[in-house]
Amino acid sequence: MNLKVFLVVIFATLSHAKVALYELALSDENIFSACPDTAPGTLDIHGFFDLSECLTTLEEDGIIISGNTTFIWDIQPQDRIKMVVKLLYFDRGTWSPTFFSVIAHDLCKSMYDSRQPWYPFWTGHVKNVEDVMDKCVNPGTKLIYETYNMSPTFNMKTIREGLYKVHYNLHAFDSDGTERPTNICFDVVGNLLKKSGV
Ligand SMILES: *[C@@H]1O[C@H](CO)[C@@H](O)[C@H](O)[C@H]1NC(C)=O
Known about the structure:
This protein is mostly beta strands.
């Protein structure tokens, strides 16, 4: 299996934009890996989604996604879902935070909001959006995707080569603010190499 994906990085300043091509070599053939050293009650991506009907193919120009995913996380329909996504860089033996992090304190309110950073990579390609919009990540909800290329194009000022990790964490809270007994944690780990460009 090809574990390499090309990324287009646009370095934009006020006066001009330069484009560079990077190659991301994913560390895990399943794309997503479980978080290391988690506390009891932490589930990996398979505790969040049933991915058995979701097809992902790594192509040179991106990750092609099709099929559908069904949420299976055991939460209650009115729960508040907090999602944290962080980009980490492996620097001198430790994972260090970078400029990039997203915190959705109430994911259900913004899950299908086109201004959110996950929209072009995920919920923007849900075909049955009318049916699932109000269902958030309630167990049994099936998102049906159009076939799309998760061709990652990034706008940024600077980036360095090396080992990166996108770290995803989800927590659910009942109406009193008490956290549910399980949370979700998974990572995407890959090595970034510059191929051409600036
Ligand atoms: C879900 O995906 C599978 C695999 O691609 C497909 O066979 C099935 O028809 C899909 N179900 C729906 C409801 O789209």
